[in-house]
Amino acid sequence: MISSPDVVAFTKEDEFGQADPDPWAVPEEFSVPLSPISDSNPWAKTSYAKFTKDFILISEFSEQVGPQPLLTIPEDPKVCGTFDLNYFSLRIMSVDYQASFVGHPPGSGYPRLSFVEDSRVVLGDSKEGAFAYVHHLTLYDLEARGFVRPFCMAYVSADERKIMLQFQELSLRFSQASECLKAGNRRAFAKELQRKLRDLEYTHSVLQREEGLQREAGTQRMYSAHAVEKANELANVEKSIYEHRDLLRQISSYNKRPRRDPQAVSCEKCINECLSECEQLIEKYAKLARPFSYTGKDETGQEGQKDGEEVAEEGEDVKRRPSYTPQLIKAKSAKCFDKRLKTLQELCDVTFYDATVTLLKETEKGFRGDLCYLHTRRLDKALRRKQRVTNFLFEEDLGDDDEEDERGILRPFCAVNHAVDNYTLLNPPHIVLGTEPLVLDALEPSDPCHPETSNNQDTEPGLVESHLDSSPSDQTLETQGSSEGNKGSFSSDKSGLDLAEKQLDLAKSEAPYPDSELTHEPDMERESSSEDMETTAGDEDGDGTPVSLLEVVSELEASREDQCEVITDGASDILIPLDSACCMAQEGFLYEASPAEITPCVGKSSNLQTPVVNQEPQALLPIQDDYTVGSPGSESPATGLELPVGLFGDAVSRTSVEEGSDCTMSASTGSDRGASPLGYGGVVTLRQRKKAGQGALKFVRQYPFAMQALWCLLSGRTLVVLGVDEGRVRRLVSALALFVPAPGRCGERVQAWLSCPFTLTDLQRWKLIGLQRVASPVGSSMLYSLSRYSRYISILDADHKTLRCPPYRGKLLANIADHRTYIRRGSTYFLHLQSTLCEMAAKAFLFTFTHHLHLPVSSTEGPEVVEGRRRCFLQEQLGLGEEDSQILLYLSQLITQHYLQPSTGGSAAATSFSFNYTTSVLYKI
Amino acid sequence: MLRWILGGREAQGSLEKGSVLCIGEEQPKNWFTELQVLKGHFDIVRFLVQIDDFRCASAGDDGLVLVWNVETGERLQELRGHSQQITAINTFTCNDGDMSHISLITASSDRSLSLWDPDTGNRVQTISDLQSSVKCLLVLERQCVFVSGGGELCVWNKDFQLQCHRPNHSDTGITALIELPKNCIAAAMDKEIVIYRLTVSTDSSISVAEVRCLSDHQDRIRALINVNDGLFASGSHAGELILWDAIEWNITAYEHILWEESQACTQAEIRLTAPKPSEMSIQHLTTNGRHILAAVGSGLYVYSILTKAVVAYRKVAHDSNVLHTMLLSDSELMSCSEDGSVRMWEIQDLPLSAEPASSGFFGMWTFGRSNKPSAPPLKKVADVPNIRMLELTGDLIGHSGAVQMFVSFRENGLVTCSTDHLLILWKNGERQSQLRSLALFQKLEENEGL
């Protein structure tokens, strides 16, 4: 805790910026920059927003009802209060962010999926007092118009600056969530396609049979109206099959196309899985779906036989496949407003959906608090990260966050695999293929929570119902039936007739090459761009950026190149045209330099200090370098990209507020466990430590010999807190635990309550022990161990309020152990304490790594010279007395051991335990 | 001292009699300011053997032999093979040309002997089903053979082939073996010392012949040591210390240490509790060629070979029997005891006002008793004019059971083993911190900065 919000809030802008170079100034990388908002009064801002806390809103632009809010995170309705979500959804969804065009691009034969990249904008509604980072994305839905469903995720806050300054991280987090959602969606989409293809094939076979029967029955009346209609229908189905196969191919090529969005990083594993799945599917349907070769055979006159076989096969299929039976596809598509649109959950694989929600929840948690708080926390963390060598002494553990961060960058975020890793369900379920029904059967009962199957079940009832309507026996009659339950085939009615004929011709001509893509047929394109699809611009090769927009982009890029540093190294910049009315950016464009893309060019990062958002020059504080782009001095490329907010660490500190004091050594039940955060239960969190600050303050104010007790702890002498009352002892121990250097991640060096005699090994392990005083034979043996090891320990008697320890006359601790202190609040004291301890750690660091204080400079020097130099340094330069030096020596010893640990392999050798022989004196209250 | 801790009266008595001799917490001469607890044994650790400058082996009742790195505290090897407690352990250096390789010989109650390679942890040789378990081992490096003593005396070569074998007549068997000049060995059997002579015939077969039997001790011989080329010493359970001529096998000096004699005369009360034979039993003898240090009961006794007289003594040096002693130099010695402590002593000249000082001192260490000796406890104090005193300079407290043995590695530290299954490595904290600093800067250099 190097800085605290209290301090930052009061900093003034006086010397900021133009101060003369101060010879005593801390080096740049260790200095604490002033808060970016220090120039404005933090309390002046009057928020007239109708919500109290920031939240995440997910909205959809429904093709049926327009913009609508779907859910908020947190889901508590209190969060948004009287804030009108519907209105706000309208605002955020009304940005025509991507010119999302769908349908058939000129020059391709089939409906194309538009691979639209996400867009990120900041929107504001000053009337409502709401500002939002809005992340637009599209999901695929076979039944939706143009197969796309536009969604957006918005981080809504009353503080505009907060969003502007956090833009980069918000963008990163939301991209992660979006990628996750989209990955799940692609999977679900592929599954849906598969189902659809199966239906189509089934329909196709049925139609063929019918046609064959008709032809047999009435060869003389070749071109009856009914026959033509049938033929058209068949052609329609065949076309549909082609189209769907093409869609499947497209969706599988999703990951192969070059990503325009520099922020979109997706998990290799997921991509590979998805790819292999899709490839499997394509292969599958390339083999199965040979409708044309089949027709050819039909014409040669083996119908009867074929029919029989087919019926048999069908029957078998039905028997073996109770979970899913193909249904007949009606030729007519449903009306737009008749159909029920899939919900977000249905659009996405369950696992992925859950992972996304988790991610968003974490994001929301990570961004809690006002900007000032976030800023100081970030500073604190950035500075601490630079002092890894000494952090273990008094700071809470950063290790996890770092790992998390680094992992997040090295292995691009895959929320799903993160979430699922320790799950048995490591391999995502494969899409079940028609020929492997047994596998499905085997899977279903044994794995009820199988996302795949549960998803199937979710969406199936409708299908099953409609199947019941059109049972195999009367299917021929049902083909023209009502459109209920029809999940929408995309071949349109209007173009149906000619299309069907053309398809037939085409089918015959193409029969030998059933797999070839029919993109070179010029007629088809126009035809297949049917009316119910919105035809806009085309996109080539799955490129998400519309052509029209690209022109604008290139123009703008050209014009901007001289103003702002553009990363030329292949990194793509996206300029997103924004609706100037609702966008915060005055220039109308957001310039996005993504961290993910910057990674390879850290080497030339001198010109990379690109602001996240050009409109916020304040964001360019020196310390911000660490967050935005890689600073030249950073040790690894990853540092520049570290997420400044410890989502996970914070999550821990918030979720595990309940003390994990399942102290295994405890013999009796504690009267108040709440006082003690210590034990083997879990990580000691910042929150607990702050709470302990209250106890520490109380101790300092209550006991005149507090200074001596603190000195014992800080100089590495084990302190035993002896008492009858467990609650009191535990309270004292948890308060004093703040002063134990290097207490370990879970406070391993502290034993809150011990009721058996301790041994030397215990002394070696624990630096602070709460010991039960018992008046029994056990008690006497305990007292014996106390007296036996008295030279290694100090004893604080909680009942008689005495302390037995070596005398301490130093001045170093007077600052933190002043029993007349004016500090009244525990958290304030904790911060005060932290800064003092941090200072000590810094001195110890200096002492440890100053070569000439430990080793002779020349060969002629003896150990006495070095010893003298060391003493001189401690006494004269640091101004420490004999006892105060011991603190520093102990801290230095810990640093040394910690630094050497990995190389020596601390596991094999026992830790050593240092002590010295001094007389103890008894302090009384 | 710690009465304040008690908060009550009940435990006072037990505490007060706890410490007989207390140096206090201020020990400026004690440089052992760092310790490492070495865990690994499951039972009493009885033996420690120094292998080389940085390694030592520990053996105990669990049949395990562990090899430790004294510098780092690492456990290097675990020699498993004996099913019962180890009764004797010794190093065996065999010079094969230029190469001298150190092995470990162990003997166990399971009546087997094993040869180990401490570098690899392999059992190189083993012999089981001996007629009796071996109680002591003696390595004769010149002949490259070793002698095992127990119910019988056996001579083995380095390949564990029995060279010759001599059954024993006494019930107790051989308890100690030392090498004497002229290919002789002395074996302690109950109250007697038997001298054997080894003869190596031309076909390199070895035979053993009993040469002499010395039966001057009145009680069981507990310790037998070589003093120098011309002398060896033995100590008995009854407190007799005899110096023998190593060549002629004559008695050169006889000293009977009787702690309780004078006290028993003067203090009637003491007699009820005092004259336990163990109180004057010589548990351990050690020498540096000039002095012999005898552990007698719970006391220490320094005997000068030159003057053939007592130099210094401390009747109650420990709260309980002293188990092992060592002469660090002519004036410094160390002892460990069943009371779980290791104490360091210095032989100091008595101050001129000897009498009051000593009585005052004695008064201190008989703290727990109801009476103080009113007279100087030993007539020898008066007899010997140039007697000096043993001053406690420091103690090492850490073990919770009897300290069985210790091995000093000089500046590298001290290893102690105990009945509490632990070994403790005591080190000079300052030196260690300097070594660590050195390592730190080395690592810093390797890593090229932080």
Task: Give the key terms.
heterodimer, A: 925 residues, alpha+beta, Rossmann fold, six-stranded mixed beta sheet, 30 helices, 44% helix, disordered N terminus, B: 450 residues, mainly beta, Methylamine Dehydrogenase, Chain H, eight-stranded mixed beta sheet, four-stranded antiparallel beta sheet, 7 helices, globular
General description of the model:
Chain A: Residues 469-494 have a biased composition (Polar residues). Chain A: Residues 296-324, 443-495, 509-546 are annotated as: Disordered. The complex is a heterodimer of chains A (925) and B (450). Chain A is of the alpha+beta class and 925 residues long. Among the domains of chain A are: 188-344 and 429-528, no CATH class; 658-822, 3-Layer(aba) Sandwich (Rossmann fold), CATH 3.40.50.12430; 828-902. Helices cover 44% and strands 9% of the residues of chain A. Chain A contains 30 helices and 14 strands. Chain A has a 6-stranded mixed sheet with strand order 9-10-8-11-12-14, covered by helices on one side. Chain A has a 5-stranded antiparallel sheet with strand order 2-1-5-4-3. Chain A has a two-stranded antiparallel sheet with strand order 6-7. In chain A, strand 9, helix 26 and strand 10 (768-772) form a beta-alpha-beta unit. In chain A, helix 4 (167-217) runs parallel beside helix 7, helix 5 (225-252) packs across helix 18 and helix 28 packs across helix 30 (882-904). The radius of gyration of chain A is 36 Å and the shape is elongated. The two termini of chain A are 32 Å apart. In chain B, the strands form 7 sheets. Chain B has an 8-stranded mixed sheet, with no helix packed on it. Chain B has a 4-stranded antiparallel sheet with strand order 1-32-31-30. Chain B has a 4-stranded antiparallel sheet with strand order 2-3-4-5, with no helix packed on it. Chain B has 450 residues and is mainly β. The model of chain B is unreliable at 1-20, 261-275 and 353-384 (pLDDT under 50). Chain B has one domain (36-447): YVTN repeat-like/Quinoprotein amine dehydrogenase (Methylamine Dehydrogenase, Chain H). The radius of gyration of chain B is 24 Å and the shape is globular. The termini of chain B are far apart. In chain B, a hairpin with a 4-residue loop joins strand 3 and strand 4 (65-69). The longest helix of chain B has 19 residues, at 429-447. Chains A and B meet through helix 26, helix 27, helix 30 and strand 13 of A and helix 1, strand 1 and helix 7 of B. Strand 13 of chain A pairs antiparallel with strand 1 of chain B, so a sheet runs across the interface.
